[in-house]
Request: fold
Amino acid sequence: MREKVHVEILNPDDHIDLDSVVKKIVVDDTTGALVIYLGIVKRTKDGKTVQELFFKEEPDSLKKLRGCVEEAIKGFNVKFVYVAHYSGSRRPGEPIMLIAVSSEDRENAIGAVKAIVNSIKAFEPLTKEEMFLK
Reply:
């Protein structure tokens, strides 16, 4: 039996193939919901113009990311979870992370995505540095 959680940390030049993500997470004929969240770099924050965000990957970042996801999905009936978080430099409009969750129903899929986002933002498995235009 395969694991129901797949997490990865991407390099700045990596691209996410959404078709392959969908094929990975629709696991059987009872899958009735697929929720995809794409977090992107904001152009402004607190009235300041964002130049870039830099995500530093530490030796334990992948383990921390997996822990955030596994903890967040407790209590949700999910079939499969895919999380990809970028490392390195990200500019406004560029993706930071993609979260995809499949479930038999939308309530569990939507709830799990929201819990995963909140967990990752709270625990920051990759160190984030924000740079603003002067």
